[in-house]
Amino acid sequence: MDNRTNDLLNRQINIEFYSAYLYLAMSTYFSEINMDGFAKFMKKQAKEELEHAQKIYDYLLLRDKKITYQRIEAPDTDWISALDVLDDAIEHEKTVSAKINELYRVAKETDDYATMNFLDWFVEEQLEEEEKFRILREKIKAFDECSCTLEAMDRELNKE
Ligand code: FEO
To answer: Which candidate, 131, 137, 39, places its Cα nearest to that of 88?
Structure first.
């Protein structure tokens, strides 16, 4: 594995941890405004992000590569509505997708087929995550944040 790929995979572990931190902060926001279904949804996303970090960590161990630790940034938490939160989540996932693509490009340039194969799962996962957040955002937008429909959505999410 090329050193650049090793570095980028370590950066990606950090990004996944940051994602978990961000979604946990979003979960807190929803808990504080008593939208427990949305809070539960975001908490589940945070857990998935930790699993993504773990997956990359395990892959680096498998390849006998260096694992480095970096500072995890604090997320901005000045959201003003559910729509605002979902906008941020979508923007964040787009950034993550771009980072995965960058990693894939470097692996490809260096003929690292094992890493390309490993990253295929992440490419697919990013599509799903962007879609999941986008659908939720569209539903919120369609209801124009009418409190009664948001409450109904919240109850639905709480059942999942
Ligand atoms: Fe692991 Fe949502 O990116």
So the answer is: 137
